[in-house]
Design goal:
Blueprint: E1 52-58, H1 62-73, E2 78-81, H2 106-113, H3 115-138, E3 150-153, H4 157-174, E4 178-181, E5 198-201, H5 209-222, E6 226-228, E7 233-239, E8 242-247, E9 250-259, H6 270-273, E10 277-286, H7 291-297, E11 303-306, E12 313-316, E13 323-329, H8 338-350, E14 359-369, E15 376-380, E16 383-387, H9 393-408, H10 412-415, H11 437-455
Parallel strand pairs: 1-2, 1-9, 2-6, 3-11, 9-16
Antiparallel strand pairs: 3-5, 4-5, 7-8, 8-9, 10-13, 10-14, 12-13, 15-16
Helix pairs in contact: 1-5, 1-9, 2-3, 3-9
The chain binds flavin-adenine dinucleotide.
InterPro entries: FAD-dep_OxRdtase (IPR006076), FAD/NAD-bd_sf (IPR036188)
Pfam family, one: DAO
Protein name: Glycine/D-amino acid oxidase
Length: about 450
């Protein structure tokens, strides 16, 4: 039972006032990630290419490095290749929210994969988050991690009731500290009247994503992992002793291969490219705000999410001086101003006080979506893949990458995961040009408008 009963329900469900579009030629000072100010991504010193290795890893983001670390610590010779600077993919650009969420709801997972699998997937989110937190602590990773909790805002009372039931189920089934927040108490969590209450879960926090990647790279290199930056893998061919992995720096013979390219998968892997669709996600950062304003808008310094399909996620910067807000970006080329303006208007809808705030940074990166919408390990023609994180890889990529490493080493128990199953289905008529993304995003926006309309009836 939720605590709405008897509450004074304000009837206004739309944003209190229409926010005019901002017409400024310059929407943010910088188009590089705010995170790179403290932890810039950099090339590694060139090093000779080993002729043979036990394992070759394609991609040196969170997934590739976590796998490489686990393998190297077990004495395997491992070379990881990245087409860019390590971390320059999504792993140094993200919001740093340790959500570990799954885009499919429990009912859909149960319908598709059965009750047992659905339960296992739900329970694994908790284990994967704890794995990340233990890893940060035990390795003493300097990445501004704070387990502050997450508030998720409801766009109407129906959604609030659903969230309240969800919070109660999380606490009962998984022992996660989670609870509903009625509208009357909302301002204790977020300085806005935009939502109609929400829910809190205390098992989610925030980290500095680029520092986390840099620290992961540090421990992986110290463990003996060879990381080759700006060295794309151009083909992988099977032969009698394993695989011939061709890179821009030469060819290496590998007994096993792990692919961790997620939203940056290129034409070198046409099989994966037909299955993962890169979708842009964008984040804006405000300039520094007054401490009193920050204390009013984000009193508990929590991570923030929303119940909308195309909802925003937002958070304070680790030093508590700025707000960073992210959301989908339907552009496919260049760096147009419109997506930044959409996010900026969204920020102004939530916090009217920030309507005219200046932005210091606006940047985007790719997340990988696919038809099954579940992160996964799978195998195809002997190559193992750890990928498909659907915008929630801060928790999933280290977890799935590490499980994939144990799978390669034949470790039964440590490799066990509910995410080890078949390859995702190919996307029909898709060969690497996601022409349909703007239409899909418009579809979600329409669903959100309908939800607003229903909530305000
Ligand atoms: C703007 C944004 C916000 C996000 N916010 C959050 C968040 O708050 N919380 C959350 O959980 N997740 C978030 N994510 C998602 C998260 O960042 C990713 O899921 C995660 O970083 C994926 O890690 P990865 O190692 O699989 O891939 P990546 O970090 O993307 O690394 C893949 C690497 O593969 C390399 N590569 C590709 N092809 C080749 C090739 N042929 N040869 C060699 N290398 C190759 C690329 O250069 C790239 O560096 C966000 C993502 C973005 C873009």
């Amino acid at each position: 039972m939720s605590d709405l009963a008897g509450m004074d329900r304000p009837s206004l469900l739309k944003p209190q006032r229409e926010v005019p579009h901002v017409h400024e030629p310059k929407v943010a000072n910088k188009s590089t990630p705010y995170w790179w100010e403290a932890a810039p991504v950099m090339p590694l010193p060139p090093q000779p290419l080993a002729r043979t290795v036990d394992v070759a890893i394609v991609g040196a983001g969170y997934a590739g490095l976590s796998a490489g670390l686990a393998l190297a610590r077990e004495g395997r010779s491992v070379a990881a290749f990245d087409a860019m600077n390590p971390g320059e993919g999504a792993s140094s650009r993200n919001g740093g929210i340790t959500s570990g969420s799954i885009r499919l709801d429990y009912a859909t997972i149960t319908r598709r994969f059965g009750e047992e699998k659905a339960m296992a997937i739900e329970a694994e989110g908790k284990v994967a988050r704890e794995f990340l937190y233990d890893f940060i602590k035990s390795e003493k990773l300097d990445c501004d991690f704070q387990l502050v909790g997450l508030f998720k805002g409801a766009i109407g009372y129906e959604q609030y009731e659903k969230m309240a039931r969800g919070a109660e189920a999380l606490a009962r089934k998984l022992g996660i500290e989670s609870y509903a927040v009625p509208y009357a108490k909302q301002r204790d969590y977020v300085g806005t009247d935009f939502y109609r209450g929400g829910m809190v879960r205390m098992d989610i926090g925030g980290l500095h994503p680029a520092k986390f990647h840099a620290e992961l790279l540090r421990v992986a290199l110290a463990s003996g992992l060879a990381v080759h930056s700006n060295t794309p893998v151009t083909s992988i061919e099977r032969d009698s002793s394993g695989f011939r992995v061709a890179t821009s720096a030469g060819t290496v013979q590998a007994r096993q291969v792990l692919v961790c390219t997620n939203g940056y998968t290129d034409g070198a892997n046409p099989f994966l490219r037909r299955r993962l669709v890169p979708v842009r996600s964008r984040i804006i950062a405000t300039e520094e705000l007054a401490p009193e304003l920050m204390a009013r808008l984000m009193p508990k310094r929590m991570m923030m999410g929303e119940g909308r399909e195309l909802g925003f996620y937002y958070r304070p910067s680790p030093d508590g001086r700025r707000i960073l807000l992210g959301g989908r970006d339907s552009s496919r080329a260049g760096d147009p101003a419109a997506p930044t303006l959409r996010l900026r208007n969204g920020l102004g809808e939530i916090f009217p006080e920030l309507e005219n705030v200046r932005l210091s940074h606006s940047w985007f990166g790719n997340v990988a979506m696919h038809r099954d919408m579940l992160p996964r390990i799978f195998e195809k023609d002997g190559v193992v893949y750890a990928t498909g994180f659907c915008g929630s890889g801060v928790v999933w990529a280290p977890w799935v990458g590490t499980r994939a490493a144990h799978k390669l080493m034949g470790h039964g128990e440590q490799a066990r995961t509910a995410f080890d199953f078949r390859p995702p289905a190919a996307v029909p008529f898709y060969r690497g040009n996601p022409w349909f993304i703007p239409a899909v995003i418009k579809g979600y926006a329409l669903q959100d408008r309908i939800a607003w309309w229903r909530a305000s009836r």
